[in-house]
Design a protein that fits this description.
- The chain has one domain (3-353).
- The model has no long low-confidence stretch (mean pLDDT 94).
- Helix 4 (52-70) packs parallel to helix 14 (253-267).
- It is built from 18 helices and no strands.
- It is mostly helical.
- The longest helix has 36 residues, at 318-353.
């Protein structure tokens, strides 16, 4: 298989694949506790890993707007999006639930915390993509799957609201409305249930990131030329903000990382910011970004397996992260070739038939 067949190529937005690589790596960092032994700085870097999901959601908003705009109809668009994400998700959810049920691996932290079971109820909720209606099972199998039904929800719902993202005012209004709504629901949830997780793991809590990502598509395709003279300033702000948000702990750094991601997607151009684009589109980055979805879903299983056989311990270390990451990348390369690429191709073919 040639590099061009293996790597995802999108022309002047290839750098987004590099951003996916960073987001996936961040998630592995937090779940492996990679830098926790490095004091306050290590704790901050490790903790920032959870915001990799926010980066993914901003990118997803861009992708939804782009794919829907370029599709001939809604059905064609949706089948392509669903075939991109569901086959691997269904396979890993089913496999992990099964080996948990028969005792081959230990139940996840969230399964134990909320008393969920590896049973038919749990499986059906995940397959239906409605697991966010019961927070006790929403993240109980892999420990990262809570985000997939949220993404699918916005795959389905966002196209009908994309007209809002065509202007900055509309996007800001949507973001403000969703943030306020999320805050209200979180307050009610904490007051009556003692936790905000019933709201945190729902589409409303992350809708603002999808709208922000969708805006970047319209800005890039329609307004970028008018703001080119300001691009350097915005890119510079984003480049400075990212390390600050990763190396220091403070409220709102997830939002800053999401905003920085949006700025990069909106303004970054290979012919204007060559060094940055070269870094994000280097072969290793494109490779890791291409398999980032598999990395995201598979790394919790690798961690469980290594813990189960005693190769790594609960004590976090950089060497443990390196081992987890290498094994995850190896397995993800296989699932990408034999599952993701196959089902993506099938989705494209079905999409063409529905055009």
């Amino acid at each position: 298989m040639s590099n061009n067949q293996f790597l995802r190529v999108y022309g002047d937005t290839d750098f987004i694949t590099g951003l996916r690589a960073i987001a996936a790596t961040m998630v592995v960092v937090i779940h492996s506790g990679a830098f926790m032994g490095w004091g306050l700085l290590g704790s901050a870097i490790t903790g920032a890993g959870k915001y990799g999901v926010d980066i993914f959601f901003v990118i997803s908003g861009f992708t939804i707007a782009k794919t829907f705009t370029e599709s001939s109809n809604y059905r064609s668009y949706l089948i392509r999006r669903l075939m991109r994400i569901l086959p691997l998700y269904y396979l890993l959810i089913t496999f992990t639930l099964f080996i948990t049920a028969i005792g081959l691996i230990a139940p996840s932290y969230w399964m134990l915390r909320f008393g969920a079971e590896a049973d038919l109820y749990n499986w059906i909720f995940h397959l239906s993509l409605l697991s966010y209606f019961d927070y006790r099972v929403a993240n109980s199998i892999l420990g990262v799957e809570w985000s997939i039904p949220i993404e699918i929800f916005w795959y389905v719902a966002l196209p009908a609201m994309l007209f809002i993202s065509r202007t900055l005012k509309g996007t800001i209004a949507a973001i403000v409305a969703l943030v306020i709504l999320s805050a209200i629901f979180s307050y009610i949830s904490k007051k009556y249930l003692g936790t905000s997780l019933p709201i945190k793991w729902t589409p409303v809590s992350y809708g603002h990131l999808f709208f922000l990502g969708a805006w970047t598509y319209y800005f890039r395709s329609r307004a970028l030329e008018s703001y080119k003279k300001h691009a350097k300033t915005f890119i510079s702000v984003a480049v400075v903000t990212v390390p600050i948000s990763i190396f220091f702990e403070f409220d709102g750094r997830g939002e800053l990382l999401a905003l920085s991601t949006a700025i990069l997607i909106a303004f970054l151009q290979p012919n204007k910011f060559g060094m940055l684009c070269q870094a994000l589109t280097a072969r290793p980055m494109l490779f890791l970004g291409s398999i980032s979805y598999s990395i995201y879903l598979i790394h919790p299983l690798v961690i469980k397996a290594l813990l189960g056989v005693g190769i790594i311990s609960e004590t976090s270390s950089l060497s443990g992260f390196a081992l987890i990451y290498c094994i995850t990348v190896t397995i993800s390369s296989i699932t990408y070739i034999f599952i993701e690429k196959t089902t993506n191709k099938l989705g494209k073919n079905l999409s063409l038939k529905m055009s």
